[in-house]
Amino acid sequence: MPPLPIIFRQLIAAIDRPAFERRAAQIRAEAYDKSFGAWDHLLALIFAQLSGATSLRELELNWNALRPHHAALGSGPLARSTLSDANQRRPASLFADTFTALAAALGRRLRRDGAHLLQVLDATPIPLGAHQPWARWNGRIRGLKLHVVYDPDSRQAGVLGITDATVNDAEVGRTIPLQAGRTYVFDKGYCHYGWWHAIAAAGAWFVTRPKTNMRLAVLRLRPLASREGEEGDGFTVLEDAEVRLASKGDSSLPIPLRRIRLRRHADGTTLEVLTNHADASAVEIATLYKRRWQIELLFRWLKQHLRIRRFLDHSPAAIRLQLYAALIAYALVHLAARRSRFAGSMLRFLRLIRQSLAEPHDLMQIDPPPRHRRRTRWPAQLAFDF
Q1: Same domain? 11 vs 89
Q2: Does the chain have fewer CB atoms within 10 Å around its N or its C terminus?
Q3: Whole domain around residue 359: which residue ranges?
Q4: What are the pLDDT digits (tens) for 4-17?
Q5: Where does residue 201 rank: exposed (0-12), middle (13-18), buried (19+ CB within 10 A)?
């Protein structure tokens, strides 16, 4: 019986290497670093994410310790100077395309009948600090922004872009291809009337929050289930009204709007939600906006358990490559958990992978069975059975 491949090799099996190499040749990703190929570069940065390497030197030592497995991985030894040079010159679009392909595979699953085709848009800051003179300051942080579109039903995440922190969220959000029948959920940072009109013209819906300076005139109040409002999961709908823009810019948004006011049970605060969806109930609309917080949980998971706060290399190109490598590692871990039908949390699965990354173990059986307490033969016998 042939020996099992190491866990890391089983993880990267989800990457279509021929497609990756065709794309690398197409964009000439190896034009300046022929001695250190794009495949070697990809594996090194994914391994850095999963192994938790804190420096190029540590990554070099850990990777070269896998020398007996390099041939099976289709790679070779690593020199940190070579990796640093490649980080400066290799286009990040190659890694971005790899993540897009894995995210598409992650999203392939049957949906429930009648389920919303939901996409959540948001951006998370990547602080880089004052020691990076090239990073721009937006008044709150100096660094970058990672713009993501997320499907909470399939856990499929896509990257819209990695930009300077000064770039407006709506500018990047408008690049998303619009599809009829989808609902796009985003916060007030994506306020752009022309884009909202384009969403409605595409036969789609949006759910967002109005800015505090947005003036709205009530056209008609829609009836609620009772005078006290309609109860949802963790909130109460207080008002459901058809509205229009009351400012001078009302002609730039010639679509029907609804404003839903709700009170959160946790802290008693009142929120307003704005949508162009005329048929869904107020509770359904409020529930859709509540699901926007799932992308915040995604950002928190990435920042806590992968390396997107501290970087091995700090040039602009290197940071973008490492961000995409972190997202690729995220997709690989989730794909492996789905294939193995892992019943625990993603954090536990990631920890099991990290502690056995270089071991020849079956990835489908990575979770050890629980230990059963050994019973003593004689009930009266004293036993130290822990």
Answers
A1: yes
A2: N
A3: 7-96+310-365
A4: 789 999 999 999 99
A5: exposed
